[in-house]
Amino acid sequence: MELRSDMTVKLMKHNARDADVATAARVSTIGAESMEPGKPVEGLINYLMRDRHGSPFEHNSLTFYIEAPVMVAREFMRHRAGWSYNEESGRYRELQPVFYTPDHSRPLVQVGRPGAYLFEPGSPAQQRLVTREFRSAYLWAYEHYTLMLSRGIAREVARSVLPVGIYTSFYATCNARSLMHFLSLRTRDEKSAFPSFPQREIEMVAQAMENKFRTLMPITHEAFARNGRVAP
Amino acid sequence: MELRSDMTVKLMKHNARDADVATAARVSTIGAESMEPGKPVEGLINYLMRDRHGSPFEHNSLTFYIEAPVMVAREFMRHRAGWSYNEESGRYRELQPVFYTPDHSRPLVQVGRPGAYLFEPGSPAQQRLVTREFRSAYLWAYEHYTLMLSRGIAREVARSVLPVGIYTSFYATCNARSLMHFLSLRTRDEKSAFPSFPQREIEMVAQAMENKFRTLMPITHEAFARNGRVAP
Amino acid sequence: MELRSDMTVKLMKHNARDADVATAARVSTIGAESMEPGKPVEGLINYLMRDRHGSPFEHNSLTFYIEAPVMVAREFMRHRAGWSYNEESGRYRELQPVFYTPDHSRPLVQVGRPGAYLFEPGSPAQQRLVTREFRSAYLWAYEHYTLMLSRGIAREVARSVLPVGIYTSFYATCNARSLMHFLSLRTRDEKSAFPSFPQREIEMVAQAMENKFRTLMPITHEAFARNGRVAP
Amino acid sequence: MELRSDMTVKLMKHNARDADVATAARVSTIGAESMEPGKPVEGLINYLMRDRHGSPFEHNSLTFYIEAPVMVAREFMRHRAGWSYNEESGRYRELQPVFYTPDHSRPLVQVGRPGAYLFEPGSPAQQRLVTREFRSAYLWAYEHYTLMLSRGIAREVARSVLPVGIYTSFYATCNARSLMHFLSLRTRDEKSAFPSFPQREIEMVAQAMENKFRTLMPITHEAFARNGRVAP
């Protein structure tokens, strides 16, 4: 059994540059043919973001390979518009014993009221408790899973006992617009016009994706950050 | 702890009649205003289905309330186009100890090759094994969950140990077109033009939904069945 | 030939009440079954709108019948997510000579720069010019259309000469969330957090739709208006 | 004034290879990491197409630049799922006098009944008629447009008189799955499992897109053609 506290986020392929946003926007106004590649695009992209002209941010694509617990994949795949997914199948594969456990940076205790929860780290005793309980529960569940498999029970049946802390892997393809919408909801940021309260585990995935996005499309990302982190 | 083998599917509200399909189609050809309510619509609906004119089947809505294991909800919510969801939250609620266990009608043993699996019931010993292992695994997991809650651990953290066989509940809203697409993939039918191999548990949900659909829109359903169970 | 300056917006059917928003939201937190029908929902709906919990606003549907010029239908049908359409076909029907002409309330002159245009009414001479030119152009185009039809040319070919000011009719089905997104972009409102600059003709359609929406879902509409007219 | 009978279809950028389909599919079964780049993918792609596993065909993107008459753009943009658009704006730009006229290969006369129309070329007299009427109608309309512009009328108002045969330009981004769905409806093919009857003008665009697609993803295209030209 392997216990992990981190998420894997790899950018597998992409087709995403700031210049493409400008090209798509200009077809509306001065015609795509006349685009000058060298022309500065900062002002245009900032204007599009501010005035919520979203469609120019869709003509690109980013494909991520992600490893995260099932509970994170569940929240992730609620994002529908502009997202495509392929996930590891528990029907066709024997799932491997890799499970999520919080590290010391993960606050364990929730205070406040629904919709405005605050988190506190938790005492050393609580941290030890979580480590112990997670390990014990995961071991027990996986033993039951493998026992059933060894007795000929179908994978799709036996997996019922596996916990939502087990890691899964999936491909997720999006465009800059659908990615910014995802980031606006799945990261916490003081400068956001609409504060969100994502679960820490999906935020870890989102932050890693945002880092890739910032590198690929720095001007678009800067405009996103400057305009309240609201997707156009 | 409660063990269930069934799925709950309730039609909460709807706005779906065969006549609406005809009304929407006729706006294309003879004008919506001139629609004659009493005119037979069988021929028109069958023609639309056969020639894959899908959009007239979208001007309606069906809202279902569903209780099913998390593993079923996971597959369900991969359906994006024309679907809306709201699901019970493991972040905001303490999840209740209701778990899925197969009954005697559920084949437990898989034979054949990927993509064309066949199932066999399993021996009495295998059936006893599954019942015993499921119960044991569920009890153990839920005890760990409640222990962590009692020590102040946040629900969203503690839930990591809960199995995908735990029941969740959700609202799902669709239209006749998106529902037929779902049914074509999540039911098994010899008359289907494109055979599917859904997991039995989601098929149970799909069949209950199909029964509601057949009652509400009998002519549309009949045309769907007659034309290879392919969504238009 | 008929000249019109107005838009037709009829609510053909609907399945949309404020209470449904609350019901869908509560499945996340206190369980759908325990919903109390009489409980006030204002606070809950306002909270959902403010914190951008959009999915509870999707479990409903509104079907509109709309008559508007082709140029309006073109802008309208760019709205994809959560929208379904069926439109009168120029391939299957002979299109009728009904055309759009601005009335006196429609400003005719544009000043300012792209993205921040202002409009002025136009002089009496300009108003007479538009009336005269529109009528002349429409008459000429429609005569060419009917001449070609009378000589056996296919409708789908002959229609090439018809202007985008000709009226078309279509069904549009949406839910409260997709409708609010449409309204945020297709109406101009000083209280909007993100000002839009829609063409006046589509705004006329949007305003009529907003009136129907306000009547059906007054609490949702009030929360939309109060929170910057941003769709959740 | 320029009269054109052709469509412009340029592949502006892309991120689409057959190998990507296989990579996405394999994450479900043997893990993305273990993919062998050199392994033949024909069998896998054909299996995915035949059994309608659609999602692996979504992890790629193709961006087209298209010039076509407004009536074609209207039909094109009815495709919603998996499509993104940016179009030349008649509000921000003065539209240029480029119009569509059928060439000799375009059948002008429609016989048969709705849903199963046949076309015949038309007599030389009919061909001369169409050429003459189109030219006359377009000239007249454009003269009225420019006259109004010269008198200070806003572009978004004056354009009402422009015909749907005027050329527009737009960017369209899709993935292989949404493209195949488009092709299945917008091309006519005897080997298709579900025959379609697209208007010839949009079919010209679709055929040019299919040529690009076949070059980029020959194995996927071959599987599409072999399996009844039905999108998975």
UniProtKB/TrEMBL annotation, chains A, B, C, D:
FAD binds at S55, R78, H79, R80, E87, N175, A176, R177, H181. It catalyses: dUMP + (6R)-5,10-methylene-5,6,7,8-tetrahydrofolate + NADPH + H(+) = dTMP + (6S)-5,6,7,8-tetrahydrofolate + NADP(+). One of its GO terms (molecular function) is flavin adenine dinucleotide binding. Its EC number is 2.1.1.148. CDD domains: ThyX. One of its GO terms (biological process) is dTMP biosynthetic process. It is an enzyme of class 2 (transferase). Binds 4 FAD per tetramer. Each FAD binding site is formed by three monomers. It comes from the Bacteria. The keyword Cytoplasm does not apply. Pathway: Pyrimidine metabolism; dTTP biosynthesis. Keywords: FAD, Flavoprotein, Methyltransferase, NADP, Nucleotide biosynthesis, Transferase. InterPro entries: Thymidylate_synthase_ThyX (IPR003669), Thymidylate_synthase_ThyX_sf (IPR036098). Its cofactor is FAD. The active site is at R186 (involved in ionization of n3 of dump, leading to its activation). DUMP binds at E75, F76, M77, R78, E87, E88, S89, G90, R91, R159, R186. Catalyzes the reductive methylation of 2'-deoxyuridine-5'-monophosphate (dUMP) to 2'-deoxythymidine-5'-monophosphate (dTMP) while utilizing 5,10-methylenetetrahydrofolate (mTHF) as the methyl donor, and NADPH and FADH(2) as the reductant. Belongs to the thymidylate synthase ThyX family. Homotetramer. This is Flavin-dependent thymidylate synthase. The lineage of its organism: Bacteria, Bacillati, Actinomycetota, Actinomycetes, Kitasatosporales. The gene is thyX.
